[in-house]
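I hope you will forgive my troubling you with a question about protein structure. The record follows directly beneath this note:
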Amino acid sequence: QKYRTYPFFDNKPHLRHKVIQVRNGGNDLLCRIKDASLQYMIISSGFYLDCQDYQSVHSFINGHYQGMLNLREPSNKHYALANYGIDTDAVDQMELNTGVHVNAGTSDAFWEWYDLSVNAYDEKVYEEIEKIVDVDEFINYMAVQIFLGGDDWPQNNCKGFKGHDGRFHIVLFDIDQALRYDKGSFDRLSSNCPLVAIFFNMLGNSDFRKQFIDTYCIVGGSIFEPQRCEEIINRIADEMRPALALEGLSPDDTVERMKNAKKHIPESGDIAIHSGITKEKKTIDAESTFPLNN
C-alpha cells in the first residue's frame, strides 16, 4: 500500500498519508502554537483554502521524551496525494519564492498563468486563466497572507501544485512569522516574486479586484474575528501548557503577542500595498486601475 489512512487530524479524517511531518514550531520554537492556531482558525471556519491541519503529540526518541510537538500535514508534493488523491508521480509541484523551483513535474502551468496574467483585464483572457487556476482559492490565499502581515512571505514559504481538476492551487504553510505589522511586512509585496507579479496583474480585472476586496473584508471581519481567535488561541495554548512546563517553557509569550498584534495594524481602512514595480503607494478600491503589467 502506497499510503496510510489513519485519521490523525480531526478536521481532515480521510487523508491519504504517504508522509507525515513532526514540527517543532519553526520560528515559534519555544511556544509551538502560532502557525498551528492560525491555520486552525482558517480550517475550522470552513474558508476555502488549502491549509495544513495539526495535532499536538508527545514525542519520544528511543524511549526518551522529547516534548510536545506539532503533527502536521506535509506542504510538499505529498500534500496533493493526501488531499486530492494525486499520485506523486503525476503531480506538478513547486516552490514560488523569488524564483520558481520545481520539486515534481514541470512548471509549465504556472508560467502559462504568469504570461496570461499580463492581459487579465481582458475578459476572454481571464476566462482562460480560470481554466488553469483555481482563482477563488488564489484570491482567498492572497487575502489571508496580506491580512496576516508576515515578514517571511512572499519571498519565502510559498508553494503550489497542479490539482486533480487540472488547475493550479496554492498551499498555505509556515506562517509562524505572521502578525508582524510592526516590521513593514506590507512593503514585502514586490514584483521580485512571480506570484505577486501575477496578483498585481490580475488586479487589472474588475471582477478579480472586487472579489479580492470582498474576500479581504470577510477574512478580517469573520475568519479572524477577535473573540473567535482568542478562544482558539487560549484552547491550543492550554493544551500545550502542561507539556511545555516540563521543559521550563510557557506559551504565554506567543499568546500575548498574538492577541496584541492588532495594536500594530494601520488605522487606515484602505488596503494599502507598496508595489515594487512602481515604488509608489497603491490603494485598492473598486474603481482603481493598475498599470502593473510591465
